[in-house]
Each structure stands twice: as C-alpha cells, then as structure tokens.
Amino acid sequence: MWKLALAAVLLACACSQAPQLFEPDAELAPYGDVGAGEGPAWHPEKGLYFSGGGRVTLRTLSGEIENVELPGGGANGLMIDPQMRLVACQPGAKRVIRIERDGSLTVLADNYLGAKFNSPNDLTIDSQGRIYFSDPRYGNRDGMEIRDPVDRMVEGVYRIDAPGQVVQVIVHEVDRPNGVLVSPNDEYLYVADNNNDNVGGARTLWRFNLNDDGSIDPATKKMIFDWQDSRGPDGLEMDQSGRLWVAGGRNEPVPPNETNTFGAGVYILSPDGQLLDTIPIPQDETTNVAFGDEDLQTLYITAGGSLWSMRTAVPGLVSYQSR
C-alpha cells in the first residue's frame, strides 16, 4: 500500500513541476488558407510575413493580407534582422537576399566558390549578425553544382559574414539540412535533418556546439529528437525558457517514404530533447513556426498554405532581438 501511496505522491510532484506551456484556456486558432506555406517571421511594426505559392505575404497588425513583391520571385525561409530588414531565402533564384529599409535589395549570397546553391531553405542569425542558412535539394537533383573534393554532392549549411562572404559550416555532418537555429549567446547551432523523400533518410533534430569563429565542433553532435520514419523536423524556434518548438510530422502517410507515426504539428522539446507536449495541426504539412504579437506570446504556425496560432505562457526568442 505504501508503494502505491509513494507513487501517487511522486506523480503529483511531477505534475506540479510540469512546465506551463500555454496560456490558460488557450486554443488553436485558424486563419484559413492564406498562402502560408512556409517562412513565418514577425515584424513588430508591420505584422507577420510568410511565404508560399511563389510569393511573400504580409498579414498586417490589423489582420489585412498584403502581397509583398520580391525581385527574383518567391521565397522560403524569412527573417527580420536587428535593423528590422527582411532577409529571405529564395530557392528558385538560389540565393539569400536582404530588403533594405529604403526598399533596395542586397544579395547576401548567391554562390559558394563560384558554384550555385541548391535551394536555400531556412536561416538564423547569431549575436554578431552572422547569418546561417541551409541549402538542401528536395525533388529533382539535376544540376546540383556544389561538390566536395571527391565529387560528392553537398547539401550544406553556410554562414554569411558579410554580403558575398560565405563560409561552409556543415558539409556531410547531416543528411539533408532544413530548419536552422542559433541559440542565445551563440552556444549551439540546431539543424533539422529532414531527408523525408527517401526511405531510411534522416528525420532528426541535431545540436552542435558553436565555436567563437562561427564554425561548429563536429565532435559535439548530439541528437535532440528523432521522428523515425515519419516526416521529420522542418522549421523551429526557441522560447525564452530555452524550450524548442519544432514543426514536423504528418497526418496522412506517403508510402513508402513517410509514415504518420508522428502526427503533423508542433513538437515542444526541452533543451535536452524531452518531448513536453505537442500542438496537433489537422492539415499537412506543418512546416514552420514563429513567435509574434506585442508580447511575443503568440506562436504562429504554417501548414499546407494555412495559418494557425496558439497563445503560449512564455514569450519566444526572435531574430531581431539581441541574443
């Protein structure tokens, strides 16, 4: 009997210590099919940017939907830098660009040692203003130009130190990089490794220690979470308590490449990879997340062209604030 009583006490203690993730009575809020395929990024003066359907869209602070014209076509990952400039990965144009405050365009990276990128996907920024971006290739792999010394195709992660100054950070340390995130104080680089269109491909979130010069320490590679044979991790963000909010999973399987063992949604992980909770999203594919609103306690979620939100208990970290 005492063992049962002790177990009940331990369970009660564990529940009382469980982190508060959402505001009381928080519910998933749908905004409909507004072309939110990817790349949400919050601008405190303008609203929420997102990408999809070959264009970039702004949902203003008042809830209006506006198209944003980007030279070179559509975008994938988006970010607001500390100078409040929009930075965008353009997979079609194979480059990373920045829209200056006067509306002019700066090409930050469009080649590595003269070779064109595969399709820049997602991006993050460190405390020194250095931008890291992933460069996978999904679908047709013809025309991939970046190769390693033994002529293997490279799907890497790169760092932009200044416009046109590009450094290769990850070569083959992961299978197919997608979402990327630098943690506060430039301690870690998180990489969503999502080779979801191949049987047996990686579906894993990794963490690497970052060196002062912006390189990784490959020996510190640590698995944070594994989605096994489901759709793997895509975009991710971190809240101010250090928890990771990761888009991933799938509701409808896509044989033989992807199962629905892990359903579509947002996976909330502790810093060491413990699964704390999930936000199920009824629409495939859940692709990315961003914290927004004045208090940074609204998590915006993109999924299959639709936009959703959920109120959180702790504010998020955003790219335009110092890390």
Describe what this molecule looks like in 3D:
The structure is a single chain. This protein has a single domain (24-140, 148-311), classed as TolB, C-terminal domain (Neuraminidase). 5% of the residues lie in helices and 43% in strands. It is built from one helix and 24 strands. It has one helix at 2-16, and strands spanning 29-36, 38-43, 47-52, 55-60, 65-68, 78-80, 86-90, 95-99, 105-109, 123-125, 131-135, 156-162, 165-170, 177-182, 188-194, 203-210, 216-226, 236-238, 244-248, 265-269, 275-280, 286-292, 298-303, 305-311. Strands 1-24-23-22 form a four-stranded antiparallel beta sheet, with no helix packed on it.
- For the record, the CATH class is Mainly Beta
Number of domains: 1
Q: How would you name the CATH homologous superfamily?
A: TolB, C-terminal domain
Q: Secondary-structure element sequence?
A: HEEEEEEEEEEEEEEEEEEEEEEEE
Rg over alpha carbons:
19 Å
- Stretches where pLDDT is under 50 for at least 5 consecutive residues are 1-16
Q: Please report the total strand number as a whole number.
A: 24
The SS-based structural class is mainly beta
What is the oligomeric state here? single chain
Architecture (CATH level 2) name: 6 Propeller
Q: How would you state the average pLDDT, rounded?
A: 93
> Into which percentage range does the β-strand content fall?
35-45%
Helix content: under 10%
Distance between the termini: 51 Å
Sheet bearing the most strands, described? 4 strands, antiparallel
Cα shape: globular
Number of helices: 1
The fold-level CATH name is Neuraminidase
Strand order of the largest sheet: 1-24-23-22
